[in-house]
Amino acid sequence: MLSYICLTWALLVLLTGSTVSELVVIGEVGQDITVPCHYSVGSRNGVTSMCWGRDRCPNSKCSRPIIWTDGWRVTEQHSSRYQLKGDLHNGDVSLTIVDAREADSGNYCCRVELPGWFNDQLINHKVVVKEARISTASPHTYTSEQTSAPGNTSESSFTATRTWPSVSASEAQTASTPCSGPSDCLEVTANLQNTSVSLPSQQHPEHGLYIGIASCAALLLILILALFLS
Fold it and tell me: Which residues does the UniProt record annotate as the domain Ig-like (predicted)?
């Protein structure tokens, strides 16, 4: 009877002696993920050792340990991507996973080794690392302010600015034929507008040529008359 009572008490201590809790931490690929873990430090003597493992907390120590600390400094580190950035002296032993990857998803155990039998503080974490979210914001609409040279086309994402080249009178006459569609009519109208502006500028050289020929002819006639009279 006495042995049965002792066995029952031992089982109760094993099952209820340690403080066990469980948390879920969600992060994204490429980010630094912090898995929280703290314990109370009443005095300098309250600083104690602890470990992190890549599995649920076993009855002792850590399964697949990734980092250890004696409470003052890190004594064992499986990878530089696993770091303790908290204030260890004040009981902040949170685990930071640097540049998280999908392979980092899984169970993590924070085991704080407190004095006494079966007094360890145990926290099981489930870490979920997801792909980074892609922004679905609509693209910005803007209008290009660049001025294009004659004959070139400057296009923006939604608005295009076009400058049509000057055309001759014959081309303007050809453009007066009926258009086949609205877009053709707009192009013909633009050509006619440009023609009305450019034609006078093209006629100035011809006027100068005619005036020069007439002046030469008049001088030649005067010279012939002077020779004839003499």
Answer: 30-135
Residue 18: its H or E element: none
Contact 29, 132 (CB under 8 A): yes
Burial class (CB in 10 A: 0-12, 13-18, 19+), 26: exposed
CATH number of 20-130: 2.60.40.10
Amino acid type, 230: S
Mind listing the pLDDT tens digit for each residue in 133-187?
876 554 444 444 444 444 444 443 444 444 444 545 444 444 444 555 555 545 6
State phi, psi for 12 to the nearest 5 degrees: -65, -40
- From residue 71, alpha-carbon distances to 83, 152, 171, 212, 224 in Å are 14, 72, 91, 105, 123
Q: Distance between CA atoms of 193 and 199, rounded to whole angstroms?
A: 10
First to last CA, the chain: 166
Q: Under DSSP, is residue 41 helix (H, G, I), strand (E, B) or coil?
A: coil
